[in-house]
Amino acid sequence: MGSEAGWNFCYVVISMLLKESFMKTKQDYEQRLNESFSIELEQARLDLALIEVSSVSADTVESGQKEPFSAVFRSDNQDILEQGTYTLTHSEVGDLLLFLVPIGPDQAGMCYEAVFT
């Protein structure tokens, strides 16, 4: 295997590991409510708390399907992250690769939402 092929293989394995997180369901996130997560940025670390987990559809979920839900995270930093994919780190769960959307500030900080369908 050439060195370029080796790097491609490593990238695929790392991507799969990030995507195969233990947190896949609404219940997984509900168990982590009010717990801390962090994002390592180029110049700083952003600390977030998981503050809300809620269903995104009133429809019933068919057997074998995952329930669609959203998770809201809050940072006490008022600086706004751009909408995009970030690696959130949790001390017990490890790394989660999530697409976060800024949804605005509340009384305690800036909020971001991840939607799971």
TrEMBL record:
Q: Which residues form the DUF6916 domain?
A: 25-116
Q: Give the Pfam families listed for this entry.
A: DUF6916
- This protein's species is Arenicella xantha
Query: Which InterPro entries does its entry note?
Result: DUF6916
Protein's name according to its UniProt entry: DUF6916 domain-containing protein
Q: Which domain of life is it from?
A: Bacteria
